[in-house]
Amino acid sequence: MASSVLIVDDSSVVRKALVRLFADGGFEVSGEAENGPEAIEKARSLNPDLIVIDLSMPGMNGLEAARCLRQLLPTVLIIILSDYGGLFPEQELDSIGIAAIVSKAECSTGLLYTARTLLCHTAA
After folding, report:
1. Most buried among 18, 37, 92, 100, by the most CB within 10 A?
2. Which of 79, 46, 43, 76 lies closest to 63 in space, CA to CA?
3. How far apart (Å, rounded) are the C-alpha atoms in residues 45 and 95?
4. How many domains does the chain have?
């Protein structure tokens, strides 16, 4: 069975591109959301294996949403997408429960590789 993923980005263009990327990459895209509160609501009902969430969103940013998602679904893997790359200390990411941060500038295969690697490690 394919791993399910919830895609969260305030840009509909980016969101649609990510949905296509993950669907073409063999993932089951269980849903998409355009902001933090919607991501929390959808994650509650969909219970995805992985959440890919944009860092910069209006209202509730990706880090704030990740904190809430971690409390709601303690075992879900969360990947943050950022325009800023790895500007966050690993200790801060670990304390929030973020599995990885991936720069939006990286190629799409890098994002899929990170997602597959994280899911394989949790399945082992």
Report:
1. 18
2. 79
3. 25
4. 1
Cβ contact 78:88 at 8 Å: no
Query: What residue numbers bound the domain in which 113 lies?
Result: 4-123
Q: Which residues pair with 51 in a beta bridge?
A: 6, 78
- The CATH number that applies at residue 22 is 3.40.50.2300
> What is the identity of the amino acid at 27?
F
Amino acid at 55: L
pLDDT in tens, the chain (124 residues): 569 999 999 999 999 999 999 999 999 999 999 999 999 999 999 999 999 999 999 999 998 999 999 999 999 999 999 876 556 666 667 778 888 888 887 768 788 999 999 988 776 5
Q: Count the Cβ atoms, other than its own, within 10 Å of residue 11.
A: 13
